[in-house]
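INFO worker-7 received task bundle
INFO bundle size: 2
INFO processing item 0
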Amino acid sequence: MEWSWQRIPGEYLVTGVRLIGGGKVSARPGFLHVKKGRLEAIGEGRPTLAGLPELAADGLFCAPGFVDTHVHFREPGQEEKETVATGSRAAAAGGFTAVVTMPNTDPAIDNAGMVRYVSDRGREAGLCRVLPAGAISVGRQGETMAELGAMVEAGAVAFTDDGSPVQNGRLMASALQYARLLGVPIMSHAEDLTIVAGGCMHGGYWSMRLGLSAMPRAGEDAAVFRDIELARATGGHLHVAHVSTRGAVEIIRRAKADGVRVTAEATPHHFSLDHGRCRDYSPLFKMNPPLRESEDVAAVADGLADGTLDCIATDHAPHTDTEKELQFDQAPFGVIGLETAFAAGVTYLVRGGKLDLGRLVQCLTERPAAVLGLPLGKLEEGGDADFVLLDPEREWVVTRETLRSRSRNSSFLGETLKGRVLATFLRGRLTWHADDPSVVR
């Protein structure tokens, strides 16, 4: 792909691209006409307009900008790991034009002022839409409900105590009821601490072999079941974060068949890697929920394929090298994932025969946007020109040097993945170019 201009003009054409939308890939090349940050026209074949600057992207695929329902940007309080600005840079490099930030910061995002603070930092960075999720409880302590209404007015798009489960069932039920009136989902970090507290990896063969404390599947399954029953009783919208077990997938599948208002997400590491990756005690494979067994990995992929799991979310969780160099049981949970999500999807889902390219893109665009009820994730005439150019055949090696995040704790370091986001556009403005990373300032 060669660029025909140094500065993106106010009006231009992107030509020769295979358009992706609605879970399908266009049969023949098409074009985008971008004008003043919006999509003036979209279609197959050649545009009839002449005289406009043109990006000839022959052979590439064009999709809506990706939407991530689950990222940790660490600001305020842990800026040494990530900031809203550096996280936005990583998002752009991964093809994401909208991300939902988790509230487990210091202090927590549990009031309107903090919601506005994160939103303002996102606008200042200008590389993706930063949409804060507010905390369910004050200080994420699981005791008193936070001011949900005021946070929605300030721009919060969901509520969660992510990083900590809401153990108080009465509080969770009240939050679901209130959030229903506000028209936003409650995101569940599904974990029963009476079952998994003190554990550091999945309970199975490898935890026994390595002598590490276990986090059994039952801890997730029990919490998912409880929260779904609360959603059933209240009519609230429950969104289950980072599903990792075959049992949770089946519980969600049955609840959807019963008409419960539940959506769910899967992370790239949970549909691609199993607990055997922990065999060398590398904290780069320590996350919560933990990597599970091969049948769980397959169940998560199948859940995405049949729609039980609505979308792919990265759970991008940056940590410093110093933290991730601690012993496995002492290192923090979490791995980054914004920059490798598309490639992991191509490598493990598309090439693995679980999804085709159109459905993979749908799990990164329309479906997460629908979970949040946001008008994003689509290429529509008159809409904002948020789009990405993709090469699903390009191979690349994930190295510390290729990553834009402030942290480097990726489970895919050293791995060759297939599928690359070549360029990202936010409201028609180029925010990432894989062959010229300096575009992202």
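INFO item 0 finished
INFO processing item 1
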Amino acid sequence: MPGILYITPAYHAGVVEVAGKWVPLYLVALAGATQAAGYPSTIYDAMTKGVGLEEIEARIRAVKPDVVAVSMITATTPDGIKIVESAKAIDPEIVTVAGGIHASFMYEDLLTRVPALDLVAIGEGEQTLVELLDALAAGSDRCAIKGLAYRDGGRIVCTLPRPYLQDLDDRPMAWNLLDWEDYTYFILPGSRLGAVATSRGCPFGCTFCSQQKFWRRTWRCQSAASVVREVEELHRDYGVDVVLFTDDYPTPDRQRWERILDLLIEKELDVKILMETRAADIIRDQDILWKYHKAGIIHIYVGTEAASQTTLDLIRKELTVDESTQALRLCREHGIITETSMILGFPDETRESIDRTIEQALVYNPDFAHFLAITPWPYADIYKELEPYIVEHDYRKYNLVDPVVKPKTMSLEEVDQAILDGYRRFYMGKFKEMLDERDDFKRTYMFNAINRMMNHSFIRKKIGMDGGKMPEEIRHIVESDPLAQDALVCPFSRTLTKAVNS
């Protein structure tokens, strides 16, 4: 029986890693399908483990897989290619497979440039990989397998498209293959972090987004009962007490969504939930936001993206500034922690327009805000429009953190400095606001988050602590406010005290 080893690239980029170590849910689903079909399956989450290529190569030698599968988003593609090349160098008989959103759209480029790559699994890979392993076991031809691309002599062959899975309920998930001690949500110390995709896809057409392209603006979902069974299994069998709903848009079906909330309330699982959704759905659900809170939803990301209606319309966000303002306010009123992001660096961007965006973020007043550089995924709808302004072609920098698009009247350095200023201005004000927070859970949560920021190299740079010194704005607040010294109930207090007394 051919065995398969799934590997995450050893890539790291700023914002996401500040808050937690995240389950590679896509690999859990793929490995669940191949494991259920009887094929030896292994997951090596190199990204979460923080290891490098040397450790990955050691794992390949130890497992001796017949197939090595690597999932690639644009930023992780260079590191994914290194894994593929290493696997072939270790054993030329290993079949190498790339999947994920970048590989699915850029398969011709990858198969042309990377001789060590044998196959690309396009789109959803559960059935594709099972059929590939079936073909390897039987010695049969791969040309009948839907959703594959490969070289055949001097040409690249793409087989018929793989239809989307129609039933997402009760799919086999390879939870048993994870090293569960690796996964935690740093903001809640001692937690064990799991993940559930309640749905796949999004019907909206934001031009900068990769997901609407990957799912072709479709949306499919698990039933409410199936979602809650999965949360319950993670809690019961693996000790998970924080769950990230990974889907881009879990809430379009109000009836189903409310049923999920009702079942979570009924089960009383004591599991905290992190999620994202659209502002319009929060406004729609204002009469049941109390159920969000009671069901365990503690943190919601709302994609506001821009300060002006002109920019929102340009990227086809189908959102108004007023909707964002109202949705964030409603969440705050119901004790739900809010997070949002603003995209900077469009071709017509100026320092003045960026300042207006930062000011709007202050008006929105979420608990967390991120200031992100517009990133031209090479397959996104907006790519052609941005292409004349792209000055950085290293995919490792296509991470929403490093500017790669040069506006007409700004340099990349000026865009990066504007991003730094956004973080500094937002979190200087937020720090003082958090000192006045009277909700014990939220205050502890927020201070734990700031503690992570203060001690993470990326965020230290973004708020001006890359030299190791506390910004004077924070030092003044700490020295003048007894809450900062006497009432903090998290590790941040030790960080601040040490900094003040140094």
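INFO item 1 finished
INFO post-check item 1: Residues 412-435 form the longest helix (24 residues).
INFO post-check item 1: The chain is about 45% helix and 15% strand.
INFO worker-7 idle
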